[in-house]
Design a protein that fits this description.
The chain is of the alpha+beta class and 297 residues long. The chain has three domains: 164 residues, Sandwich (Jelly Rolls); 55 residues; 56 residues, Arc Repressor Mutant, subunit A (Orthogonal Bundle), CATH 1.10.10.60. The protein contains ten helices and 13 strands. A hairpin with a 2-residue loop joins strand 5 and strand 6. The longest helix has 19 residues. It comes from Mucilaginibacter gossypiicola. Keywords: DNA-binding, Transcription, Transcription regulation.
């Protein structure tokens, strides 16, 4: 962790009357110091492979695509490090943590967004699949204004809340010496989630997933639990339910078909798991999200 006097406190131009501010910059190097501010921040950085991301006591070298969500007062910055790119694009979106206030976060439809905002206090990094999907939407945001721009930002945040992500802080990033190869835990978790996201519709096992990242089963379980707080089964269920939620919201498929499409082979078990995790049935979730009120006479 950096010392307090080494961290620059940024006073942003965001006022209480603003919903958000967006900065779209093309640059040749990172020259802004590690800093913090009261606002939340979403950063999309392209063509900066080799730069170093610093978030609190966490640091890591980034690839050419980077998308990070930061909570209020969280120390952060990007340093040139090994970056050789001269056509870096940096889109920074700053907004107040209470952008959805007045009880909005307590609505059923906002629970995934609320969870993501809470986790952002420790910093969140999104995987390549999510970045590739949302980068065009984030880039297009700079061309919008007024009400349309606010709706577009909320759509982006909603999509992020449905996507797999990793917490950056309060997790020990260590290197594991395995078969004379050093595997960083961050890379390990990203590859695990990438495999599960690509195969969630199938019946995949812990051992099969462990083999894809070349880590023995017991060590695999230990690292995954330490980095995510979840077991393999819980991680897979979380990913499947994320896809279920999206299909319930965006399509008119039957609940049974959605369950089958998302890797649940037993409908009764699916309904039990969904109700346990979401505190409602799939039909109630769909009705609530679509704003349909069920009236019982």
């Amino acid at each position: 962790m950096m010392k307090a006097n080494e961290v620059f406190r940024e006073i942003t131009p965001l006022t209480p009357g603003d919903c958000f501010l967006l900065f779209d910059r093309n640059k040749k190097r990172f020259d802004f110091p590690v800093h913090r501010h009261h606002e939340m921040e979403l950063n999309l950085i392209l063509n900066a492979g080799g730069a170093k991301r610093v978030v609190g006591n966490h640091s890591a070298e980034i690839t050419n695509i980077e998308l990070v969500l930061l909570g209020p007062n969280l120390e952060h910055g990007w340093l040139n490090h090994n970056c050789r790119g001269e056509n870096i694009r940096e889109i920074t979106i700053q907004f107040q943590h209470d952008i959805l206030s007045g009880g909005m976060f307590d609505r059923e439809q906002m629970q995934m967004l609320k969870t993501m905002f809470n986790v952002s206090a420790k910093g969140i990094v999104f995987g390549a699949e999510t970045v590739n999907k949302l980068a065009p939407m984030i880039s297009a945001l700079s061309g919008k204004s007024g009400f349309d721009s606010v709706i577009a930002l909320l759509k982006i945040l909603h999509e992020l809340s449905l996507s797999p992500y990793q917490c950056l802080l309060d997790q020990n990033t260590v290197e594991i010496n395995l078969l004379k190869e050093k595997i960083q835990e961050d890379d390990f978790v990203e590859r695990v989630f990438s495999f599960m996201n690509a195969n969630y519709q199938q019946a995949i096992s812990l051992n099969e997933t462990a083999q894809t990242v070349k880590v023995p089963g017991k060590l695999f379980s230990r690292i995954l639990k330490r980095r995510t707080g979840l077991t393999f089964k819980d991680c897979l269920t979380q990913i499947r339910l994320g896809h279920v939620s999206r299909l319930l919201i965006e399509n008119n498929y039957s609940v049974g078909e959605i369950a089958y499409r998302c890797g649940f082979s037993n409908l009764a078990n699916f309904n039990r798991v969904f109700k346990l995790k979401k505190k409602c049935t799939p039909k109630q979730f769909r009705d609530k999200y679509n704003g349909n009120r069920v009236v019982v006479y």
